[in-house]
Backbone:
């Protein structure tokens, strides 16, 4: 018995690759817009960068307040994090970099070099206000980090009221177990 032949046109493997590449670019654009929106929600001016060259002159997300930082955005299900970090470092031209990444239905994650993370914690980054306008939120965070570092260093200076308020919420009174 003869099997009916499928007369629908078949896509060549090359055609399928083109469709996947197009969808990947579209998803990348959506991810860049999502992350820029997240930055704006947290008080930073941000927009999607110009995506024609790659490099420090065209980061995925642009922000005057974060001009000292190169932001690489990845919005994929299966991220090769090592490759993404290599790309970010290559495109950053010596600036500190982060890879902001997210899978479907998952929160945004940030990956950076540990040394940059510790410089942020110590208040050594961002470099200084001359590198670009710092948002008021970032300036307060920087002051809070410096005050905390001084207090831990034994200088006895008080920590900012925002830090004190947050600590009071998490500490239990002595009479509770």
Residues:
């Amino acid at each position: 018995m003869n099997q009916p032949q499928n007369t629908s046109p078949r896509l060549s493997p090359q055609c399928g690759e083109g469709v996947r590449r197009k969808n990947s670019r579209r998803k990348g654009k959506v991810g860049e817009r999502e992350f820029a929106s997240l930055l704006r929600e947290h008080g930073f001016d941000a927009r999607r960068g110009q995506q024609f060259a790659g490099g420090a002159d065209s980061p995925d997300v642009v922000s005057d307040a974060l001009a000292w930082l190169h932001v690489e955005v990845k919005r994929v299900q299966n991220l090769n994090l090592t490759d993404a970090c290599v790309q970010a470092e290559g495109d950053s031209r010596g600036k500190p970099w982060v890879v902001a990444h997210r899978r479907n239905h998952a929160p945004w994650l940030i990956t950076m070099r540990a040394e940059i993370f510790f410089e942020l914690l110590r208040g050594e980054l961002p470099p200084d206000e001359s590198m670009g306008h710092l948002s008021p939120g970032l300036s307060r965070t920087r002051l809070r980090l410096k005050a905390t570092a001084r207090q831990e260093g034994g200088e006895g200076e008080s920590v900012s009221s925002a830090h004190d308020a947050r600590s009071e919420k998490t500490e239990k009174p002595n009479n509770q177990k």
